[in-house]
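Recall that a protein's primary structure is simply its ordered list of amino acids. Everything else, from secondary elements to tertiary packing, is in principle encoded there. The following example makes that idea concrete.
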Amino acid sequence: MAAGNDADTARRARATRSAGLLPLVLGVASAAALTGAAFFTVDSASCGAPAQYIRHDSHVELVGGCVDGAKLPATGTPPAGGVVHGNYNP
């Protein structure tokens, strides 16, 4: 009778280990899928020319890339809400 209890305990221990392994495998698989999706998204987002930061005398300018300058706010306009921080120099 004691041998039967040992066999049941061993089966439960194996079932518990395999049940604990399932969330780990699912977590690794979902992380790999999300990583693949991120690489695909970045790879498929194409721009004409890669962007470059060019330093001038007193400022840094972004040249090239996918940024459309017409969609950016004009220089000197306060941000939405009218809050202007003292250390922000456009």
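The mean pLDDT is 74. The beta strands are 52-55, 60-63.
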